[in-house]
């Protein structure tokens, strides 16, 4: 399968809550969570090298429709609701159309 839709999000946690934010975002890979979907081909959580409270999420999906459908579900909405309480400011999103590349973990 190929990713035909993706985005990056930059999230800034309240001071000292970067670890909690990362831990919560990584639950997105748990069974039944959005990142575990067959339609989610890339789910990468990264931290800023200079600020531990700044977290970046990169996602690649089979389609924009699949992303929106899965994020409308209960599991995704529960994670989104919990993320909001940890943030110091609104997340910044950039959507994109994947062309090619590689991810190996």
Structure notes:
This protein has 105 residues and is α+β, with helices and mostly antiparallel strands. 27% of the residues lie in helices and 28% in strands. The protein has 3 helices and 4 strands, in the order βαββααβ. The protein has helices at residues 18-26, 64-71, 74-84, and strands at residues 5-12, 40-47, 54-61, 92-96. A 4-stranded antiparallel sheet has the order 2-3-1-4. A hairpin with a 6-residue loop joins strand 2 and strand 3. The model has no long low-confidence stretch (mean pLDDT 94).
Structural features:
105 residues; alpha+beta; four-stranded antiparallel sheet; 3 helices; globular
Strand order of the largest sheet: 2-3-1-4
Distance between the termini: 18 Å
The count of DSSP E runs of length 2 or more, i.e. the number of strands, is: 4
Number of separate helices:
3
Uncertain runs: none
Give the arrangement of secondary structure elements.
Elements: E1 5-12, H1 18-26, E2 40-47, E3 54-61, H2 64-71, H3 74-84, E4 92-96
Short précis:
With 105 residues, this protein is of the alpha+beta class.
